[in-house]
Request: fold
Amino acid sequence: MLKTLRQAVIYARVSTRDQEEFGHSIPAQLKGLREYGARHDFKIIKEFAFSESAGLKIRRRFDEVVAFLREHAKDGTMPVLLCQNVDRVTRNFRDAVDLDEMRLCEGLEIRFIQEGLIINAESSGLDIGAWEMKVFIGKQFLNRVRDDSKRSLKYKLGRGESISFAPLGYLNADDELGKSAIKLDESRFLLVRKLFTEYATGAFTIGEMTMKAAAWGLTTRKGKKVASSQIHAMLQNRFYCGYQGYRGQWHPHIYTKLIDEETFKRCEEVRLGWNKKPFKHSDKPFTFRGFITCGHCGCAYTSEIKKAQYVYLSCTRKRDPNCPAPRMREELVFDQLVSVFDRLAFQESIMPDIRRHLTEANGAKQEFRDTALKSLQNELTGIKRKLDNLLDAYISERITATEHDDKARTFKQRQHEIQESLTSFDDADEEFTASVKLLLALVNNAGRLFRSSNVDQKRKLIALVCQNLVLTDGTLGYSLKKPFELFLEKDKGTKWLPDLDSNQGPHD
Reply:
């Protein structure tokens, strides 16, 4: 009976500085990976091998690896990915983070033959600590490196251009240059303006304004009546008085205002009630705000101060008004969480490994940053050259002034995005340094650090370490983010990964 072979993909990569190192060259990696595949009854269906000196092309090559794996997983079985060692993959932060997502969510198994390490969605324990530590730090770094789309949004916000769908009373359209813009909806904008001016008198409730709008003939773009919830949202939308919202902040836009700011302010006063200040939930110094859900009904827990000194947690009961969840003093929940941080005391025996992995992660970050910055600087130089050539073409009358302005606008927008990208790497460096310092502080004494922190610092530590906080009848349930979950229950005889000689060959 013929043996069924599991499908596998070989993934070999080498950086410029490793080209001359023994055992790290592409041919050496391929030889070892092929031999491993043969010994373990794998059918090698594809080999990917490339040098990291390829610059921007390396990301496209990695995308090819991911696309190939997903294409061959459509029959229900994801191929196994064979790699030389953890460092070969984690040298590029973004690649490591993407592969870890596939491991957790899409069934990818990765085998690092030099360490003898096999990781998949079920992997646990200290044996994958090196991988998860580097992926964790990679995520912290990459979260501060904004994608081009986000930089483009920031650029548009700075110019007052639209970044979202036009609200009722406006229409999305193209301007005379063919760029996306927003114009007044001639059939609705006067009715929307009337909605604001009538509500600003304070004589009508939102329910009454909903009925008045229907009587006036105000409808949605699909011709339906405007619901009271939509009326309520419109009355809070500052777009009508000249601002557009993004991530909780309002930015001026360049389009026609339907109302002035004074009218909007009067509407806000009516909606909130005279002399009643808006409740700014996010300004309250509550440790657990937004972190805990109810184990009975799944609603969020809210925090409130009683007698000007005691903080209580209580279920909002939005889904179930009869939820039996009791109200809890904050310090009782706090004591339970402190015990979790107390259990994060790391063994001295693994401290050298942790510091070594952090050093390797720092080296990987430097390579990733330097490669990306070089690519961005080259692109920026190219754009400056194109702008110079564009001006020469206009001076020599090969293009018109309009053609020059249109093309120059596109180049300058990309120029701005690149400059934002360069700035974001500075922010990412600071985030990386802060993450490493925090990790080392947690390693030394997590419980003491948590107790001595102020409210904002406690919230940052909770967000960094914990997830899925659920309060059920006074008992706090939780799970820890990777890699911290590895250190709650520790086998004193276990190390993370064996310290291997760089000349050691593949082993089973």
Remarks:
- Residues 303 and 384 are 54 Å apart (CA to CA).
- The longest helix spans residues 401-452.
